[in-house]
Amino acid sequence: MAPLEVILKRFETPDEIRIFEKGRFEVVRLGGMSIGRATYEPGWKWSEHVGKPSGQTSCHVEHVGMVVSGQATAAMDDGNVIVMKPGDLFYIAPGHDSWVVGEEPYVSLHFLGADNYAQKQEP
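The structure corresponding to this sequence follows.
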């Protein structure tokens, strides 16, 4: 009988780090999944710090995740705006902007959407 496998990983040593102004997105690949950790500084806004460099005005990645600390908005293209707080589990459909609320850094874990979020665009 083959031995059962256990793999432990930590965000302190991620498989990939995507850095952009006022933020970073770390990716850990585990068990066929990509899990992300987003860390955004106060003043971070998706449309300005991630979208603008890639020529996008709206995030088209579908997200499922959980807020660890801080607060941020999910501002949908249809005008609906919600504030996400620590402990909130979220689903955010494609077609949105987001920004940090307040003076505390925002941290969230992403269980869906990590593969495609904040990817460098080829020139």
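The helical segments are 46-54.
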